[in-house]
Amino acid sequence: MSQKQYRVAVCGATGAVGQEMLATLAQRNFPASEVIPMASSRSAGKTVEYNGQELTVVEMTEDAFTGIDLALFSAGGGPSKTFAPAAAKAGCVVVDNSSAWRMDPECPLVVPEVNPEDLDWHKGIIANPNCSTIQMVVALQPIHLEAKIKRVVVSTYQAVSGTGQKAIDELEEQTRRLMNGKPVVAEVYPHQIAFNCLPHIDSFEENGYTKEEMKMVNETVKIMRDQSIKVTATTVRVPVFYGHSESVNIETEEKMTAEECRTLLAGSPGVTVVDYPEKLAYPMAIDSAGEDDVFVGRIREDNTIENGLNMWIVADNIRKGAALNTVQIAEVLIERGLVRVP
Ligand code: NAP
Ligand code: 3JN
Prior knowledge:
The protein is an alpha/beta fold.
């Protein structure tokens, strides 16, 4: 019997994440009878490439979702707030990459390796977590199931591609100018990013943390379905083009040795362990670019507490952190017969 095919809208198709979504759908042979690229009126009429074909971008409007089965959104929080409910009302299941719906109790927040069963209660809009959260929970969940995580202290080293194409261009331009002894202008970030680290991602909140840091705190416990896990985060932008890295310290209820952790993670879905210090082999951002898995290394016991582990977690932020996770959610929806708005 031939597999059912779906009409799929990619909303934000001209952007960094949207482009990766189109590539991921094609690479994974997604069962799409038609792919409809959508963006704002600025890009309507332009073409984008999908599976060797040139597709014409259509303007995203409230009426554009009639007859569409699945809409994969990466057009930012504002457009998502406006258009996702209209799409769901038209019977289209939305998977949204923005923070607009993540903490809404009516919307599942899903990483397929961690909580695919949360898709069962969707009401039309499903949220894709923040990239820094996704790669961390893929590695944390197997440890939590074995040893119960009590507390997580994470510091991130985030690539500029997380901010979009303009930030990629800014890092390139600033690097070129500085190497030629010329002064630089900072437009995307508040300070020079080339040869620098900015302990500031998204805006500051009243509690002294940034929004990016609070996304990691709040999203982690929702996805792992355990409000008792304490998370504290420091998120830092670094002059790397692709691949977010994270230094993660974990305190667990039960003892887990570094060797037990390595063995557990090596057999866990979506994880590749790269932990051979004697060969100078550990996960690195440049190796993660274009890869699907979350890479974990530098696993070692934290000897300052009774049950503690340190590790280094790296993933392609545009792929597993955004486009791939969204497409994987759509694949699970199909597997579970959930491509319908209840
Ligand atoms: P980007 O390169 O700036 O692309 C933005 C896309 O949204 C473009 O296709 C743009 O179309 C479209 N768009 C903007 N306003 C729109 C509107 N009013 N109606 C329809 N389309 C509109 O940004 P990006 O890096 O791809 O990121 C896009 C969004 O994805 C972010 O704002 C964020 O919410 C989310 N994101 C999530 C993660 C994650 O952690 N999971 C990571 C990165 C991004 P035009 O060509 O017409 O301007
Ligand atoms: O900065 C990064 O590395 C990830 C950025 C994600 C992002 C960028 C703009 C708006 C988000 C997000 O997914 O949390 C948003 C948003 O709040 O929707």
